[in-house]
Amino acid sequence: MRIAILSDIHSNLEALEAVCHEMDRLGVDSVYFAGDVVGYGPDPNLCTRWVLENADAAVAGNHDFAAVGMMDSDSFNTNAKDAIQWNASQLEDELVDYLVSLPMMETRNGVTLVHASPRLPDQWEYIFTLWDAEENFAHFEGTFCFVGHSHQPVMVCMDSEGSVAVIPGDKLISEEGCRYLINVGSVGQPRDGNPDACFGLLDTELSEFSLVRARYEISVTQEKMFREGLPQALSDRLSEGR
Fold it and tell me: Does the pLDDT at position 56 exceed 90?
């Protein structure tokens, strides 16, 4: 089975459509979503409906919960707060209900899915360091845990002796006795210096995982953001992947 793991779409329909094209090309069998379908971008309804109709497993992100009143946005910066308030004002009632219903953590086919961290899923902590990663391995079972939230793709392995290391590159073959905590990056707002949409692909038959990039027409999304009066800084950063 080929499972695509998407995260942080952030209402960017053009990026999502490019990812869909790549998933079709790669022969994806199932889609898992690791949270934050809304926020920042100009197409909250179309993106949320796509997740509702296509994701076989999905969890909530902090922007999702902020958009539907499940948490406040006081911790957001000014631009993020303005964007989430606009996104919230646009969401159709059915999609609000869907976002409210999402769990914070889910395990499907032995794969754990959580937006921020398995250790404190409701605290929205970031996993930035090896120490952060090491602390989180004890809080999920199975071989793979996929997260988003930081918008920065990274693959971390814990071996059978408990040693933790970052796996370089964009591909790994799982080894017996090893477990993996993987950030699949962001579909709609990458922040690793590469503006192309990013998602993960897990091939369960080959025991192989890879990070996949998909180029899209950023200017189309930026023009939509301009028309809706969304913060210019959020539009500009799309071109820079930051």
Answer: yes
